Every structure is written in structure tokens, then in C-alpha cells.
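Human: I would love a firmer grasp of how sequence relates to backbone shape in proteins. Take your time, and here it is.
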Amino acid sequence: MQVQFREFNPFDLWIWLEFSTTPSRMEQQYIEEIFDSWFYLGKLGGFNAENLQVTEIGVDISYLEYQEETADNSLMSLMHNMGEFEYLGTWGRCWFDLGTSDAIALDVLINSLLRLNQEYVEIQKLIIGGENEDWPVQKTDRAEFDPSHN
């Protein structure tokens, strides 16, 4: 699976997937569950690089004394919105407002999609950001999430 980054705006982000064939309903369900799970973790602040206490300790985490005050004092890093996952032929896309979540969120998503590609759904390309000339974005595609749209 090829991973590409285009123009990146965390508050107005399209994520594109190109499949080798039109995905079946079951393959679509796998994809949507990954994105839904990823978004819910982000909405709950799971991608907060300011509070990675377990990772920072290293290999031996036996008897780790987790510091609640460190967690409580870190800045919130929450995802804000997610659009519906859409399909057109061999393409899939979804719109996100990543809010203040940290870049670790993208690593987690990429790692998950790499494994999905190896085991269940053949994904040719993952494009993070920008627009897709094969499937233009209309302003109305994200209007329901745009706070200035009233």
C-alpha cells in the first residue's frame, strides 16, 4: 500500500483510499469500522502525544506508577468531527476535523490500514489530505460540519 501526503489541514482533512477493485460490502464494513474506531479514540483524546507515559518509560513497565496529575495537566487533544465514509468505484473517502489531536493519530491509522491491506482488503493507495482529481470535493460534501455554513 502506497502512502501519500498532500496539502494538510487538520481542521478540513480528506482521507482517500484507492482499492484494487470495487470493495465488497464486507470490505467496506472493515474499512468503516477502522475509521469509526480511530475517530472515537480521537474524540476521547486518545491521541495525546503530551501524555505518553507508558511509551516514554520504555520496555520494562512492570510496576509503573502512572501519574494522574501528568495526565490531568496535559492539554486536551480531541478530534472534532467525521463525515460519512463514501465510495465511488475503486475509491473511498472520508472527511475529518482532527481538531487538536496529535500526529500520532495518523501513525496509528496508517499502521492499522497497512495490516488491513495485508490481511483483508487490498488497498493500493492511502492519500492523506488534498483533493482527488478522480473525485472532486464539492463544498456541500462537508457543509454539515462547517460551523460557518448557516
The beta strands are 2-5, 13-19, 81-82, 86-88, 91-97, 123-128. Residues 25-43 form the longest helix (19 residues). The chain has one domain: 2-47+75-145. The radius of gyration is 17 Å.
